[in-house]
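Course exercise 7: structure representation. Students receive a sequence record and must write out the corresponding structure in token form. The form below is the worked example handed out in class, using Homeodomain protein (361 residues). Read each field label carefully; the graders check that inputs and outputs are placed in the correct fields and that the protein name is recorded exactly as given.

STUDENT ID: A-19
EXERCISE PROTEIN: Homeodomain protein
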Amino acid sequence: LALLRAGASALPPAERIARDKLALAYEASAELVAFEEGQSERFSAAEPVFDAETAARAREEAERGFRKALRAKRGEGKGKERDVDGQRMRREKFEGWKAEQWAQWGREDALAKLSADQLAALDRILREGEGEEELKVPVVAAGEPTDDAGQAVPPGPSPKSAVQTEGPPTALNSADSSQSSPEFRDASLIIPNVPEDNLSALARRRLQKRLSMRKKRAEAAGKVASLEPQRLKPGRKAKCAGKPTEASCDDDLLQTPGAGPSTLPEVEDGEVTAGRPKRKKKSGLSRVAKARRDLDTAGITATYLRDYQLGLFHMSALGRLMRTYADASEDVGTHISGETISLLHDLVVNFVGEVMNRTVT
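STUDENT ANSWER:
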């Protein structure tokens, strides 16, 4: 652009061509396309290095400026005497600021270039953060009275419980008891009620959904459901590789009732059983677990992500979208920065706010 401006300024007015008379280029030569692709690859390779050098210089300048601000101003010192206490206090203050600032810079670096695995790890951090918020809320049984702070209030003695009648119950007494008792389900099927003041509507619905699904699975398995609000660890999936020794495996695939011994070939331990090979589990952490470990080391928490405006979207969905339109080559990685996701958050909030304002007005 600078060369075009310089050429246009040096050209005499009589030789200048108006913009509406300038012929448009509908096609580009193969040489120009190859040149642009080569330049874009060079810029793409040099941009991370340039950004890292720029950030390093800015951080060094910030340290230098803070250290200079801590120095005693002219005329405030002790003259020729050495201010040992003041130097120690300034050094401690600088070291504390430096540790806090480098921790903040480390979190920014961790969110500067996010892969699909790191986005999945961020999703786990946000879900666990919601679970921790739910655990902070006291769980109160349904129908139990609470005070203003959401704490359970022990019920006082009921007037009817203090007066007991002798003899068989009459129809009037049975009718009174049926009308006074609330129409609740069995005690084992009651879902804990969470005070609305201490928990958001979304977190409360998730808690109710989690407990209801947990009860359904327990009823199907013939077990007692745990109504604790915290998340439970997922159990191990049933595997039928090798010789079936448990009733959880598909025994009907090995032997049909009334058909005598199985016609499948005999196999030894560790070989194929019922046409399904035994899979060997890879040792070590998965890629998502490694990304989660690095994020935890950097100090990335659910609170920090929400303050950084990264708690609105489902990060795993963004990771799948990145993989859908990624390059077929494995050497080319697809990443997204936390600033881009934060910008998307602002755009969505502004758009929804504008729609609501126009709807109301």
